[in-house]
Amino acid sequence: MRASAFVFDLDGVIVDTAKYHYLAWKKLANELGFEFTKEQNELFKGVSRKRCLEILLDIGGITAAQEQFDRWMVEKNEDYLEYIEKMDASEILPDVPKVVGFLKDRNIPIALGSASKNARPILEKVKLLPSFDAIVDGNDVSKAKPDPEVFLIAAQKLNVAPENCVVFEDAVAGIQAANNADMISIGIGDAQILSEADYNFNDFTEISLAFLESLMSVQA
Ligand code: BG6
Ligand code: MG
């Protein structure tokens, strides 16, 4: 299938914000009297804020009334935003600008497809907002990855058929969402974890421009 548009996940693909999510969730866990490890944080990749808090409270064996639950969601996000506030273009992951620049030079449309409700401010901070032709984030979707909704809306906004879209993702749920959308999935990270992806790379430094060219010219 010939690729004519590209969709990027944000957290873990464009920027390494997982470390900030981790610090904010860990602070809340510690306040509530339990530990939260980096290994447990892996479960939070690609998962909505609400679902993350549900998992965190499960880990701590805590049940909460709705009001308290909502307050903790706000508290975690306020802590997370303090980290975001300090971000700049130096936090863009290696060779992401190379790939984005290559696609822009060829007038290939690109979209963001993220579960985060903070996607726009983060893209603004790292100065990538103007590069995207469409943004679909946690404010636009009703169904979380692995549901394909986020990527299907992105394809619609770019006016490209799903099967002609390529998705860059670092989360298992994200790769599944791309596959469920009938898109070409590229796993960024551990190939064993992201084994359902059509292609795997550890990071963007491993993605050659020739590979991108090949995706854009292959007819199947
Ligand atoms: C995803 C992250 O991109 O966004 C998750 O991988 C995060 O870890 C989710 O929980 C929601 O992010 P936010 O910024 O809306 O809390
Ligand atoms: Mg991600």
Automatic annotation (TrEMBL):
Pfam families: Hydrolase (PF00702). Gene3D superfamilies: HAD superfamily/HAD-like (3.40.50.1000), Putative phosphatase, domain 2 (1.10.150.240). InterPro entries: B-phosphoglucomutase_hydrolase, Beta-PGM, HAD-like_sf, HAD-like_SPP, HAD-SF_hydro_IA, HAD_sf, PGP-like_dom2. CDD domains: HAD_BPGM. Belongs to the HAD-like hydrolase superfamily. CbbY/CbbZ/Gph/YieH family. NCBIfam families: bPGM, HAD-SF-IA-v3, PGMB-YQAB-SF. This is Beta-phosphoglucomutase. It comes from Zobellia uliginosa.
